[in-house]
Structure formats: structure tokens, C-alpha cells
Amino acid sequence: FVVTPPIMVRVWRTVSLGPGELRARLEAMCARHGVRCRDIRVWRTDGAMLNGAVMGIFAPVRYILLTDALLESLPGVQVEAVAAHEIAHIRRRHLPWLIGAMLASLWAGAALVTFPAEAIAAALGVDLAGTALDAAVRGGAVIASIVCAGLVFGVVSRAFERQADAFAAQSLSG
Known about the structure:
The protein has helices at 4-11, 21-32, 68-73, 76-91, 94-124, 132-173, and strands spanning 14-16, 39-43, 52-55, 63-67. With 174 residues, it is an alpha+beta fold.
């Protein structure tokens, strides 16, 4: 979360959004909402993607990205709406919450399989260590973790997207 964003802005071919009215409005929006980031960058996708994104939890290594197609295709007020949506993810701390939810769901998925299996083995006086049944329980725990994490990611990320949309609408409505 510290090292990856500065690397990714280079790997993903980004450049700083140049000076001008749009950059000034986006920086003012960040300031108005108390959001700090290292830079607002243009993600050069050769027109292949129309999107915005935020990378980085901590302000010194946090970037707001807007694709080249987005900047070329949308009028300024719509670009501001996309930026407000991305600012909402920062302001509402969606990334740390999502990471926490994912870690909790991975643990819960494993616990749903492991704890009952261990309780049954203990009740029967069976030692599972090193057995094929132990390997099956561990495999089941991995599968349950992945399924649980997938479900939680779907629910939480959709909720965060709706919250970011509402934030952007409220922000731009004055």
C-alpha cells in the first residue's frame, strides 16, 4: 500500500494532469473535501478505457487517475463528477474498509469449515494432524475462504460504489 502506487503510475503509463482550469477545479474539490493526494494523473490507455481510479491509502503515495478517453470524451462537469466519485472513495476510507472486510471474510470462511471439523474430531477423540481428512478440511477451508471473500467483496464494493455515487451527486449539487 506504500510501494505499489508509485510503481503502478509508471507501469500504467500515467502522466500528471497538466495545469489549467480542469486541474484547478479538481484540486479545489479535493481541498473542499479535505482530501490530499500526491497527484492527479492521466492514465494513457490509448482511448481503450473510460474510467477513473484511486490508488494508495496514504496521501503521500495516493493518486487520482483519470483515463485519457474519459478526459477526451466527457465535458468538464462530467469529469468533475467522476473525480468526485473517486474523492468519495478517499473521503469515506473505502480502501481500508474493503481490506478489513476481505481479511475478516477470509478468516470467517476458513473458520466455518475448520472450527466444526476440529470440534467433531475432538468430540470423537480423533487426531486429524497429518491425515487425508486434515488435508480435506484445509482444502475446504481454502475454498470456503475464497467463496466468502468473493461474496463479501461483491456486497461491500457495490455498497461503496453507491455511496461514492451519492457523494458525487451531493458534492456537485451544491
